[in-house]
Design brief:
Length: 298
């Protein structure tokens, strides 16, 4: 039994915050200061509602415990002078298991950034030799395809990876386009990856034409892609979900009516409005082409 004050029904212990050291392999590297301040205020007002998860250390480390999960709570308690923390003390087999538990707790509570999640998934894959499907199902509650896309981002230029995690939306590279770059432009061509990403983020290449541009540059570079053969049923599953997703997204804004839409664009540059209308026209044209092709099926 750890030397800590067990409370209530032994669900957690009270430990001295100064006896707990942060986890050096913490998958989360970036912390949102606004959210951290909000958490600190909540702890000051209501107390620490959720225990941190820790493990005991062998004597001579300078600390009694090490965090497995809960660094935000650990930091927030320090910000408001909370010295006794609620903690669940667990036994882990090794460093691999400690990292796995930390990833699972962090992702399911407050998501890590995309690249933090990608690096964590890569380590889990190396540590346990799990398939993408198993990592997706057991760790993230996602599909194997999602994990594969995530891992592909690690082949991108470091500056492109930084764009994916950028906090400023105007400088942020969309996940889907980052995956497309990773898919079509090989790791050996990282400078080309960076050039394309910069053009997308700067607006030189519009989002609705970006995939075509990436494919064009890939062909010009002589990249040969081995496309995985998809079954008609696979394509139908994707196709059948398009109307519902599109209708749901569009109706959210159409229900606002003219006053609501006017408020959205009132403070925007007229170029933003023109670009968006252009993207909608392209979307409508693609929808009409698809409708025509389906109507021609015997």
């Amino acid at each position: 039994m750890p030397e800590s004050a067990l409370v209530g029904n032994n669900d957690y212990a009270l430990v001295n915050r100064d006896d707990v050291r942060p986890y050096i392999d913490q998958p989360r590297k970036k912390f949102d200061h606004k959210k951290l301040n909000a958490l600190a205020r909540s702890i000051a007002e209501k107390g620490q509602l959720v225990p941190v998860i820790i493990k005991e250390l062998t004597p001579g480390n300078g600390f009694k415990y090490e965090l497995i999960a809960g660094e935000r709570r650990h930091r927030a308690c320090g910000m408001v002078g909370v010295n006794l923390m609620k903690a669940v003390i667990v036994v882990v087999q090794d460093a691999k298991e400690q990292h796995l538990l930390s990833v699972m707790e962090n992702f399911n509570r407050v998501e890590c950034s995309i690249m933090e999640t990608a690096r964590s998934a890569r380590r889990i894959k190396d540590d346990y030799e799990w398939s993408d499907e198993k990592i997706g199902e057991e760790v993230y509650g996602k599909s194997g395809a999602w994990v594969s896309m995530l891992l592909s981002l690690l082949k991108l230029h470091p500056q492109v990876q930084a764009m994916i995690d950028e906090d400023d939306r105007k400088k942020k590279l969309p996940f889907t386009l980052a995956v497309e770059i990773a898919k079509k432009i090989p790791e050996q061509q990282q400078e080309e990856q960076l050039k394309i990403a910069k053009k997308i983020v700067s607006g030189e290449i519009k989002s609705f034409t970006a995939k075509a541009y990436i494919a064009k540059r890939s062909a010009e570079l002589g990249v040969v892609h081995k496309e995985k053969q998809r079954r008609p049923d696979d394509d139908y599953q994707v196709l059948s979900g398009i109307p519902q997703r599109a209708t749901s997204g569009l109706s959210f804004f159409t229900k606002k009516g003219q006053p609501g839409i006017s408020r959205i664009f009132k403070t925007r540059n007229h170029v933003d409005r023109e670009n968006f209308v252009g993207e909608l026209n392209e979307l409508i044209a693609e929808a009409n082409r698809l409708k025509y092709l389906i109507s021609m099926v015997d």
